[in-house]
Amino acid sequence: MSEWVTDAPTFAVVGKINMGKSSVLSTLLEIDDDQLVRVSSTPGETTRCQVLPLSFDDQEMVRFIDTPGFSRPLEAMRTIQDMHGEGTPDLKTVSRFVEEQLEKKEFEDEAILLQPIIEGAGVLYVIDPSKPLRDTFVAEMEIIRWTGTARMALLNEKVENEERVEEWRSRLGSYFNLVRTFNAHRARFDERKRLLSSILEIDETNRGKIEDAIELIDQEWRQRREESAEFVLEFLAKALQHRETEQMEDKAVELEHRKERAKESLKRKYYKSIAKLEKKTYEKLLKLYRHRLLKLSVEDGDFEGVDLSSEETWRKWGLSRSQLALAGGIAGGAAGAGVDLATGGVTHGLGTLVGAITGAGGAYFKGDSLPELKISATGVKFNGKSHKALVIGPPESDNFAWVLLDRFLHHYHEVVTRSHGRRDEEVIEGEGAGWVTAFKRDRRSLIHKWFVSQMKGAERSFDAEVFRELLLVLEEVESGGEV
What is the DSSP letter of 305? Predict the structure, then answer.
């Protein structure tokens, strides 16, 4: 077995300096850590070959090798031609060139990047088509072609100059088995999977292993989606059932200024607690999808990007009044139907009607209401002194839950569509709502009914039907399609 090539399908990622080789690898392997894959605009960041495996359960399924870029391809090409003499150079000549140059160091970059190729690695040749097609690129392509290995060219950027792109495609088609476009800074999950599938077209000998790797990637993504649905279900249940409590002496409750001060303090605690729940949820989400450079708009337990206590938030996020009324009416009607069934039909459907009217009215008139503070009627005694409990939560407004879900879906979309090839730090801001308003009526009704049960303190937070529906929602959010 060679130094670079193992039983796993192996591919060297090759190209001129700063064509985007490392970005392609980072996106393919979901690595946004410069300590593992260095993505930089500084020439020559990759100075040696680096093995980067695609592994599952510690089993290497596909091996990629990040290589240093060509530095003097024209001179290297002429040297190889001189070594071969008449005719077209072949793998044997290229191998001899590598062996000599690893000692001489005259063409060290070229020798290093060619070493895994002459040992049997396939080639992913990365090109930025915004660059003009020069003789140096042709020299690189010639050298790769002489190795006789399976090879695919990747156009790493989509540019407006279609003539230049077509020029590149035409020339690459003469040297490579396959030419594909892959934007490493924008590629989503499906595009990553398609690129791996394209490898099958140039490496039939490893079809089974590559197909296994693609299936494992699919399984992993489905598992992540299921975990994400669990995250949001758990978060919403805890948030909707959360209460903040403070004890006050009876005399203090009667003093309006003391009571108002206690209310404001309790509200701050309430929102801080909800923010803390949200922050933990997003942190789990970022870890699940292997993002280190995405940051949260929730810091130190406070809402920065979106303030749940502001009226602007409630205009921007969640459902409209009419949508809330409809969802609340259907949920209320379902509860009333339970009364009708329990009475054996004696109510003649009156329970369903009353429940629907009550649910719709409550949702409509309280749709914009923020969580309100309540003072419990039951007194308690501490050290012989009479007290009353001040309690905030659950929220008076049914829309509170929809606001939280809308925010989660927005954040989820930002996480799953962020490419790991990017190296800019980005803060996920609470802007760009609108997911839940696009829900179909049946979906809204199902989820709204669960929301209401949680706000009423349901013992069970997990609902299999709601969980399955949220899985469908997340899948649709990933694709950016209708929900």
Answer: S
Cβ–Cβ under 8 Å, residues 252 and 258: yes
DSSP-derived pairing of the beta strands 59-66 and 122-127: unpaired
Region of residue 73 (phi > 0: left; psi between -120 and 50: alpha; otherwise: beta): alpha
DSSP assignment of 425-440 equals -EEE-S----TGGG--
Q: Is the dihedral of CA 195, 198, 202, 205 positive or negative?
A: positive
- Position of tokens 């499906």? 190
Strand order through the sheet with 385-392: 244-249, 385-392, 373-382
Is residue 399 classed as helix, strand or coil in its secondary structure? helix
Rounded Cα gap, residues 451 and 2, in angstroms: 59
Q: Where are the alpha helices (DSSP H) in 289-398?
A: 311-316, 321-342, 350-365
Return the CATH fold of 10-202: Rossmann fold (3.40.50)
- Amino acid identity, position 415: V
Alpha-carbon span 40 to 17, nearest angstrom: 10
Domains of the chain, residue spans? 10-202, 225-479
Extract the tokens encoding 346. Answer: 């004696």
**Strands, E, within 241-283: which ranges?**
244-249
* pLDDT one-digit tens code per residue, 122-166: 999 999 888 889 999 999 999 999 999 999 999 987 666 677 888
**Rounded to an integer, what distance in angstroms lies between the CA atom of residue 129 and that of residue 168?**
7
What angle do helix axes 73-84 and 135-147 make, rounded to 10 degrees? Answer: 40
Segment 450-468, tens digit of pLDDT:
999 998 888 888 999 999 9
Nearest 5°: phi and psi at 402? -70, -35
In the block, which residue shows the tokens 């790991």?
Answer: 420
d(CA 25, CA 44): 16
